[in-house]
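I'll show an entry:

:::
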Amino acid sequence: MSSETSEEMLSVQNHNRDVVGMDYVYPVISRRADGVSVGINLNPNNACNWHCAYCQVPDLVRGSAPEIDLEQLKNELTTMLNDVVNGLFMVERVPEDCRKLCDIAISGNGEPTSCRNFDAIAELIVSIMGQFELADDVKLRLITNGSYMNKSHVQAGLRAMAEANGEIWVKVDSSTVAGIERINGVSATPELLFKQVKGAAELCPTWIQTCMFAWDGAEPSEIEVNAYLEFIKQLKAEAVPIKGVLLYGLARPSLQPEAAHLSQLDEAWMEPMAQKIEEEGIAVSLSL
């Protein structure tokens, strides 16, 4: 595969999903996974039911995933993993200190669980990972906003992932109605997000992923911070079995109209925030 595509070097900043010329499969260097992540893009139509202000997807539209060609997905993932595991991909495309395959990530250009055959896709990925004997060392991760957790075919897919040592990263960027509307572009309540996180965690090992940033130069307000911490406290109080929080800041520019409002929070703000979460008895992984 390497000889058929441009020899573009990957980096944390370069998440070009066309780098290997495939429709569904793309490799990136993930700062949160700490190595090479092979992504599965179930939304090649750039459609999502949310509109996150920090989203890096170009031409993002409202909608759901299209029908997925399972045979094409199978061929692309098999080809990609063969090049990563047995070929020259790591040498030709990846900086030396990042040459470790960390995960297969069901993610992409929209909400992946909006796919109507998500269960079949999860089972297919698990099967291919088994062919390469990856299940023990490489995570199968779903990166999701959690909005389809009530669907039976999604739940079936999550059970298949759980049996294969998989895990979920579910989005909670705010736990106020106003914050969810502004950051994620959707009308939803903190109670709904709580139900979604709980539903995910009861089916498959689950981390909360939270992106925090300044808006028009202002740090998240005390109201926002306290509401988020209360959300975490409630998870703990109800014994929801989350693995922890993946707290991260902006790494690449947003491609949404809201981009002009966003800027990075510095380490002096992010580290104390991580400590506040840890004080609630929840593990935190911080990526600046």
In short: Confidence is low (pLDDT under 50) at residues 1-6.
